[in-house]
Amino acid sequence: NGGAPLPTSYNPNIPNGLEQIIMKGMSLEIKDRYVSATEMLQDMEESAIRMFLPHIIIRQDLIIWVMPWHR
User: CA 56, CA 35: separation in Å to the nearest integer?
Assistant: First the structure.
């Protein structure tokens, strides 16, 4: 990330999963970034599910059930 400060240095309430997604999106190395916005969105959805529903095992059919707007 070229020495960019972590998002939590500005807001300590940012969840770790979201911070990792932000930092991956800001990577200086192209090979370390998301290939597409869709890939980033998938990580964001999975992170949100883990954060709000930590007892759920993430499977594609379960994500669709929990988040019907997914498709």
Answer: 27
- Residues 6 or more apart whose CB falls under 8 angstroms from that of 53 comprise 66
- pLDDT tens for 27-68 read 999 999 999 999 999 999 888 877 766 555 555 555 544 544
Contact 64, 71 (CB under 8 A): yes
CB neighbour list of residue 8: distance below 8 Å, 6 or more residues apart = 14, 19
- In angstroms and rounded to an integer, the radius of gyration of the C-alpha atoms of the chain is 14
Question: Which H or E element spans position 51?
Answer: helix 37-52
